[in-house]
């Protein structure tokens, strides 16, 4: 009868350990699944924002423009016609960027959540997007300055340039 009590006690303890192990494994599985689901949702949201930003950049860089995009650009008191025309052309880029600014803001705001959940090393595309934005805006500023300076006196000077 002692063996039966010992065996019964052993089985009780063993089943208790198995139960604890199953509970811990179940909770850990749920945690991993939940974490993976959150990362997947964040990755999908981030990818959608990158797609929107790509479309926005194509729109900003489009060579077509409408007169309504330059209506609010007024000529300065001491600004030449050429400088004003150049500034108007460059203003198209700034107006379009302003129209899409919210997308870029969301994208850069989500960057910190992305780094926290997915990893800092995976955040290089955010830096690349910021660099593209900066280059577009800097190019528009340079265009306005340089375009205004290209007053050619003859067609030969224009061709040479």
Q: Treating each run of at least 4 consecutive H or I residues as one helix, how many helices?
A: 4
Helix content: over 70%
Give the C-alpha Rg. Answer: 31 Å
Classify the beta-strand content into a percent band.
Answer: under 5%
What characterizes the major β-sheet?
none
- Indicate the mean pLDDT: 80
**Uncertain spans:** none
Q: What is the β-strand count?
A: 0
Kindly give the count of domains.
1
Principal-axes shape call: rod-shaped
Set down the secondary structure blueprint.
Layout: H1 2-60, H2 81-117, H3 124-149, H4 155-160
Helix pairs in contact: 1-2, 2-3
Describe the model.
By secondary structure, the protein is mainly alpha-helical. The protein has one domain (42-160). The chain is 80% helix and 0% strand. The protein is built from 4 helices and no strands. It has helices at residues 2-60, 81-117, 124-149, 155-160. Helix 1 (2-60) packs antiparallel against helix 2 (81-117). The termini are far apart.
Sum up the structure in keywords.
about 160 residues; 4 helices; about 0% strand
In a few lines, what is going on in this structure?
This protein has one domain (42-160).
């Amino acid at each position: 009868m002692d063996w039966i009590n010992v065996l019964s006690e052993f089985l009780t303890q063993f089943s208790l350990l198995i139960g604890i192990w199953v509970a811990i494994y179940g909770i850990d599985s749920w945690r991993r699944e939940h974490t993976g689901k959150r990362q997947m949702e964040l990755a999908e949201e981030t990818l959608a924002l990158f797609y929107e930003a790509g479309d926005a950049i194509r729109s900003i860089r489009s060579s077509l423009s409408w007169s309504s995009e330059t209506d609010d650009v007024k000529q300065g008191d001491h600004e030449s016609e050429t400088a004003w025309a150049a500034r108007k052309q460059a203003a198209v880029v700034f107006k379009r960027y302003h129209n899409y600014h919210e997308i870029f803001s969301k994208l850069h705001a989500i960057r910190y959540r992305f780094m926290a959940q997915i990893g800092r090393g995976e955040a290089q595309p955010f830096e690349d997007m910021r660099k593209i934005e900066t280059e577009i805006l800097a190019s528009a500023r340079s265009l306005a300055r340089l375009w205004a300076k290209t007053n050619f006196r003859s067609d030969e000077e224009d061709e040479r340039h």
